[in-house]
Design goal:
The protein is an alpha/beta fold. The chain folds into two domains: about 5-265 and about 470-494, Aldehyde Dehydrogenase, Chain A, domain 1 (3-Layer(aba) Sandwich), CATH 3.40.605.10; about 270-460, Aldehyde Dehydrogenase, Chain A, domain 2. It is built from 15 helices and 21 strands. Strands 14-17-18-13-12-19-20 form a seven-stranded mixed β-sheet, with helices on both faces. A five-stranded parallel β-sheet has the order 9-8-7-10-11, with helices on both faces. A three-stranded antiparallel β-sheet has the order 5-6-21, with no helix packed on it. It is globular, with a radius of gyration of 23 Å. It binds nicotinamide-adenine-dinucleotide. Nicotinamide-adenine-dinucleotide (NAD) binds near residues 250 and 471.
């Protein structure tokens, strides 16, 4: 899908300064302010992006509202919408290599993962929702004779989407493509840490012929552009992926403004439960990938390993050995298995969480420190903590970095209690050869997603969403459109 020669040809290409996309035009922020984009690969200045604020959000929302109201997208045939989304998907795929390399330079994900998880995944999502556009039916209600009750899907209007810095294209596409498929206009606020690939996506949509104003992108900080979108009186639905703290703010903003619906895809502290009847080598290999790929900056990362006590020592040793043998370093090297931390601030957060865990008595088996500091980039060695208690911060708080804890258990009931014993409920996993136990665990684990004998690699056909403090609502699958439409009843006297 991408060769080292292609990567090397793209790795030094100059990146133009990012502008907002508002009403089909690339524009600077009204105040002219800019933010620096620092590459986590080496700490160098990659480019700048517009520092949008309330005025830019106001223009973008006004453009989105005009586009929605005049029907240039919202009232065209669903099949025509579908063709456009498919065209966009093809255009993303056509420049997947350049998009992937630019995205890696922006947020540090290793290229072997980024090429699949970012442009190719986003292309697939646009094609998927493109195909769905004219395959959505309403309902006819079983009313009494002489009346007709129809249940229709109506687009909500203007959707605000706020994206995180990990997988901006993939997560952005989940929201943008599903919202557009339902007939809405969209205003996107990318993360200030990783805006570049979403800005290019905006251009691609424009080049493919998406009408002006239907998709608008305003870059800027969360506290300026993000909060303005969250507080806007003319945004109907807000869809967010990011941290719980910001999610709480967005619910407050909605309550303080127009009561817009807020859908939150938040963090996790996802458990992977390994029973003693598992294929230990396969389970250990999966566990290592499930926490250390993208240096743990994955919302569904399996950051807690729960292991049958009789295999705890052997299994932990295997995980430690594999972690220590992971090829780390240049994210633009196809052989690298875990890339950089997206920002210096996040690297320091992770190192702070490691220090805290140690001060609480957790046993550091490997990692726990910055590596490759001589590059100027932000890298942390895969980190394994053993001998942690259920109440320790490393077990209870999302670290969002390459840090995993290991806890032994004696019984299935205890495994379930430990697995469910955090505020989160995003993802989970089970390794066992016992099919009945696998089904019991699927039923009992409190999470939006349960993997069995695998972890990750979940495609567009199934929803992703959390329970508890991992959020509400779902991205992906036909259910991914539910957030972006209202049920509308027509009651007709015959
Ligand atoms: P973050 O919450 O710091 O930022 C997310 C977005 O919110 C950014 O665009 C940011 O600018 C914006 N923002 C910040 N403050 C804001 C404010 N006051 N008002 C409005 N917007 C504001 O999250 P992050 O660090 O970019 O991403 C990491 C987090 O996202 C982790 O908790 C991770 O688990 C979570 N995440 C969840 C999923 C999922 O699907 N559940 C996927 C990826 C990441």
């Amino acid at each position: 899908m991408i060769t080292q020669e292609q990567i090397d040809a793209l790795r030094g290409v100059a990146v133009k300064a990012g502008q907002c996309l508002i009403d089909g035009a690339a524009v600077s922020s009204v105040m002219g302010a800019q933010l620096e984009v620092i590459s986590p690969l080496d700490g160098s200045l990659l480019t700048t992006i517009a520092a949008g604020d309330r005025q830019d959000i106001d223009s973008a929302v006004a453009a989105a509202r005009r586009a929605f109201d005049d029907g240039r997208w919202s009232r065209i045939a669903p099949a025509a919408r579908g063709r456009m989304l498919q065209r966009i998907g093809d255009a993303i795929a056509a420049e997947a290599q350049a998009l992937a390399v630019m995205g890696v330079r922006d947020n540090g994900t290793e290229i072997s993962m980024a090429i699949k998880a970012e442009p190719m995944s986003a292309a697939g999502t646009f094609r998927y929702y493109g195909e769905l556009c004219d395959k959505q039916y309403g309902e006819v209600a079983p009313t009494a004779p002489g009346t007709l009750g129809m249940v229709l899907h109506a687009p909500v209007g203007v959707v605000g989407a706020i994206a995180p810095w990990n997988f901006p294209l993939m997560i952005g596409a989940w929201k943008i493509a599903a919202a557009l498929a339902a007939g809405n206009s969209v205003v996107v606020k990318p993360s200030e840490v990783a805006s570049l690939s979403l800005l290019r996506l905006g251009e691609i949509c424009h080049e493919a012929g998406l009408p002006d104003g239907v998709l608008n992108i305003v870059t800027g900080t969360g506290i300026d552009a993000g909060a303005a979108l969250g507080r806007h009186m003319d945004v109907d639905v807000l869809t967010f992926t990011g941290s719980g703290g910001v999610g709480r703010r967005l619910m407050e903003y909605a309550a303080q403004s127009n009561l817009k619906r807020v859908y939150l895809e938040l963090g996790g502290k996802s458990p992977l439960v390994v029973f003693d009847d598992s294929d230990l080598e396969a389970a250990a290999k999966t566990a290592v990938g499930a926490i250390f790929r993208n240096s743990g900056q994955v919302c569904v990362a399996a950051s807690r390993l729960l292991v049958s006590r009789n295999i705890h020592a052997e299994f932990t040793n295997r995980v430690v050995a594999m972690a220590e043998n992971m090829p780390l370093g240049d994210p633009l090297d196809l052989g690298t298995a875990a890339g950089a931390i997206a920002s210096e601030a996040q690297m320091n957060n992770i190192l702070g969480a490691v220090d805290l865990a140690q001060s609480e008595g957790a046993e550091l088996r490997t990692g726990g420190k910055r590596i490759h500091a001589e590059t100027g980039g932000y890298y942390i060695a895969p980190t394994v903590f053993d001998n942690v208690t259920q109440t320790s911060s490393a077990v209870q708080k999302e670290i969002f970095g390459p840090v995993v804890t290991v806890q032994p258990f004696d019984t299935e009931d205890e495994a379930v209690a430990l697995a469910n014993g955090t505020d989160y409920g995003l993802s989970s996993g089970v390794f066992t050869r016992d099919i009945s136990r696998a089904h019991r665990m699927v039923e009992r684990l409190r999470a939006g997603l349960v993997h069995v004998n695998t972890y990750g690699g979940v495609d567009n056909t199934v929803p992703l969403g959390g329970v508890g403090q991992s959020g509400n609502g779902h991205d992906k699958s036909p259910h991914g459109m539910d957030k972006f439409r209202n049920l509308k009843t027509a009651w007709i006297q015959l």
